[in-house]
Design goal:
InterPro entries: Lipoprotein_repeat. Keywords: Signal. This is Lipoprotein. It is a single chain. The protein contains two helices and nine strands. It is of the alpha+beta class. It has one domain. The chain has a four-stranded antiparallel β-sheet with strand order 4-8-3-9. Strands 5-6-7 form a three-stranded antiparallel β-sheet, with no helix packed on it. It has a two-stranded antiparallel ribbon with strand order 1-2. A hairpin with a 2-residue loop joins strand 1 and strand 2. The protein is globular.
Length: 143
């Protein structure tokens, strides 16, 4: 009986030890955009844009006033490069997604959450109108 109990304890100890030493699974990288028709949208469904004045690969020229209307598509801390999508560092030290070297942007505040109060919907409409006015410097991102 003692020998069986010792064998059970040893087996459980080995199983526990191997479970503790196993490598944790790393989440798979997910692209920050999806193709919708002939354009790119964020994973939350917002239209993505390229800034026409971004002429150097992997560098954003959208600073100061430009950022009042269009904002960078920010990665989360867990995001990683995947395929043609790369995380670049902006001159302000923040990170931003880029596709094939072209930084990605979205219209800041132009989408109100479902069921949002009228004031939020109005603010989103105003933001969308401001983006429409600034479209001379932006173009819809295409894959």
């Amino acid at each position: 009986m003692k020998q069986k109990l010792s064998l059970v304890v040893a087996s459980l100890s080995l199983a526990l030890l191997s479970a503790c030493s196993s490598t944790p699974s790393v989440p798979e990288a997910v692209a920050p955009a999806i193709v919708k028709g002939d354009m790119l949208v964020s994973t939350s469904g917002e239209t993505l844009y390229f800034y026409k004045k971004d002429t150097k690969p992997n560098e954003s020229a959208c600073v100061r006033d430009c950022l009042k209307v269009f904002g960078p598509l920010f990665p989360t801390p867990d995001d990683a490069d995947i395929g043609d999508y790369k995380i670049i560092e902006r001159t302000d030290g923040m990170s931003q997604w880029a596709l094939k070297g072209k930084p990605l942007y979205l219209c800041t505040g132009a989408k109100a959450p479902t069921g949002a109060p009228a004031s939020m919907v109005k603010a989103a409409e105003t933001a969308a109108a401001n983006c429409a006015k600034a479209m001379a410097d932006f173009e819809i991102a295409k894959p």
